[in-house]
Amino acid sequence: MTSPKATEPYVLILYYSRSGTTASMAAELARGVEQAGGNARLRTVPSVSPDTEASLPPVPDAGAPYCTKDDLRHCAGLLLGSPTRFGNMASPLRHFLDQTSDMWLDGSLTGKPAAVFTSTGSLHGGQETTLISMMLPLLHHGMLIAGIPYSEAALMHTTTGGTPYGASHWSGNSAGGLSEDEIKLCRALGQRVGNLAQQLGENRG
């Protein structure tokens, strides 16, 4: 993925991934943002220990860097992703979002576009409730939620992941990784948020 300059608008793709599947989705979403002519900034969050404190070193061994609050504060748009944990987002991502009250108070994210994505190991593993759970704090922040419209053909015939609430992946039936439809829907959602970020940014400017 391209590395946007600090002064260039970017769409933040913030996710937690344990097995690598959600990270694979994030990479496809980034390609969609770039297809829209935007900059994608991939960031993750550390795991948390049983006492809910961040438990990993300050710099990850591999993959995307850990997200800072400034990464979130200054984004032009947001794509938020998590594997499903009992129909909800994973606790490391929730732990990060719980620390953003200052952004809620000053309206840093108000009026910016956002979308969500998830992955599950089972077909009926709570994808839609997980996607909705990630939308709730974004709505409190005043963000504008984008889904995937049924004008995306892959949403009509996918037999793996894909919902109108956001991109999704079903790993239980795909040893080879993301399906073709899942890739198309990830890229379509990234492209949609990328386009919205540019249009809304121009209006704010």
Characterization of the model:
With 205 residues, the chain is of the alpha/beta class. The protein has a single domain, classed as Rossmann fold. It is 38% helix and 17% strand. The protein has seven helices and seven strands, in the order βαβαββααβαβαβα. The protein has helices spanning 21-35, 69-73, 91-97, 101-106, 127-140, 153-157, 180-204; strands at residues 11-15, 40-44, 77-85, 88-89, 113-120, 144-145, 167-170. Strands 1, 2, 3, 4, 5, 6 and 7 form a seven-stranded mixed sheet that branches. α5 (127-140) links the parallel β5 and β6 (144-145). α1 packs across α7 (180-204). It is globular, with a radius of gyration of 16 Å. The two termini are 26 Å apart. The model has no long low-confidence stretch (mean pLDDT 90).
Succession of helices and strands: EHEHEEHHEHEHEH
Helical percentage: 25-40%
Shape: globular
Counting helices, strands and paired strands, the structural category is alpha/beta
The chain-level mean pLDDT equals 90
Strand content: 15-25%
Which parts are unreliable, with pLDDT below 50 for 5 consecutive residues or more?
none
- How does the major sheet shape up? 7 strands, mixed
Instruction: Give the second-level CATH assignment, the architecture.
Output: 3-Layer(aba) Sandwich
What are the main properties of this structure?
Rossmann fold; single chain; 38% helix; 17% strand; 7-stranded mixed β-sheet; alpha/beta; 205 residues; globular
